[in-house]
């Protein structure tokens, strides 16, 4: 699978049910039945949501006998983390500039300038 873009990953996570499935899988691998338990959905609907998550590389699955087990694939989630870290650096630089501006303005005003 090619690396999905962030829009695809965010789109997949924008659905509340899929986000809850990811939260469930953050505790460890789970079978389809275990993932489906808290949802009042038919199994085909659960599988459809899991397919969306698998298509964008958020989860991976393996089948052993009749049981399919899903787990998180952290490498694509790290892409989200990298994107957020870049946004955070930009915001921090802007806050630093604002802080410096406010300090300089305060000093100028206290000098009567």
TrEMBL record:
The lineage of its organism: Bacteria, Pseudomonadati, Spirochaetota, Spirochaetia, Leptospirales. GO terms for molecular function: DNA-binding transcription factor activity. It comes from Leptospira bouyouniensis. Pfam families: HTH_20. This is ArsR family transcriptional regulator. PROSITE patterns: HTH_ARSR_2. Residues 1-92 form the HTH arsR-type domain. It comes from the Bacteria.
